[in-house]
Design brief:
Layout: H1 3-20, H2 25-31, H3 36-43, H4 51-60, H5 65-68
Helix pairs in contact: 2-3
């Protein structure tokens, strides 16, 4: 798996769990104290997110980091 494919796959996982909660990107951004554009870039696989950023997102989504990375 390439870095780009990994980032896109993680982004799809974020979208899946965000939509399960019925949240918009803005809702998730507020919950993890990030800008909406940062969430958009994560979801589109345009950034190589740090492990801590992914942890913050998973915490906001009320899932474990391993659930977010389980693909």
């Amino acid at each position: 798996m390439t870095k780009d494919n990994l980032n896109k796959t993680i982004g799809l996982q974020i979208i899946k769990f965000r939509e399960k909660k019925g949240w918009s990107q803005s809702d998730l951004a507020r919950a993890c104290k990030k800008e909406r554009q940062a969430i958009e870039k994560m979801e589109n696989g345009k950034v190589n997110s740090t492990l801590y950023s992914l942890f913050e997102v998973s915490k906001a989504l009320e899932i474990s980091l391993s659930q977010l990375l389980n693909f």
